[in-house]
Write a structure and sequence with these properties.
six-stranded antiparallel β-sheet; single chain; alpha+beta; 33% strand; 18% helix; Peptide Deformylase
């Protein structure tokens, strides 16, 4: 549908918890299309949450298919109203975010998760994954809860300037 502007740090919507999606209607379908189009238009982007484009709904998309750290991959996932059921085996890794384009940080997250979520048909799915895909899902769930990776840094020396910066397209 459209490539939307990715909101940056300081935008109030990024610090607020999103509301459940509810019925999957035409407005939700348009939101999904915008999320996918915007994610695909941003080089290196593997996920995008609705709050990052100004929509306070519990929805996001991820696709880690092309990422070099991917072990387990479910392909392109559209996620509504996720609920984390199990999280274990924390690992510290570097993360970045389209909403914090100039920085990366060391964040401890579970490396194995089980979550439930509704898909585009409104059906509840159970997603069990590990590694980078688990990290990406948890990162996007944080956006739905009003958090960015900066809120989860492992310490004051865990923040780094991004070495390679690929800006999102301007809309």
């Amino acid at each position: 549908m459209a490539i939307r502007r990715v909101l940056g740090l300081g935008e109030l919507v990024l610090g607020r918890a999103a509301v459940p999606v509810g019925d999957i209607d035409e407005s939700v379908s348009c939101l999904v299309s915008d999320l996918i189009d915007t994610m695909r238009a941003c080089p290196g982007c593997v996920g995008l949450a609705a709050p990052q484009i100004g929509e306070l709904r519990r929805a996001f998309v991820i696709d880690v298919t092309e990422h070099k750290k991917t072990r387990t991959c479910h392909g392109e996932l559209v996620v509504f109203d996720p609920e984390l059921l199990e999280a274990r085996d924390p690992m510290t890794e570097r993360e970045g975010c389209m909403s914090v384009p100039d920085l990366t940080g060391d964040v401890a997250r579970a490396s194995r998760i089980v979550m439930s979520a509704r898909d585009v048909d409104g059906k509840t799915q159970i997603i069990e994954t590990d590694g980078f895909e688990a990290r990406a899902l948890l990162h996007e769930i944080d956006h739905l809860d009003g958090l960015v990776f900066l809120d989860r840094l492992i310490g004051p020396s865990a923040l780094h300037a991004r070495r390679v910066y690929k800006p999102p397209p301007q809309v």
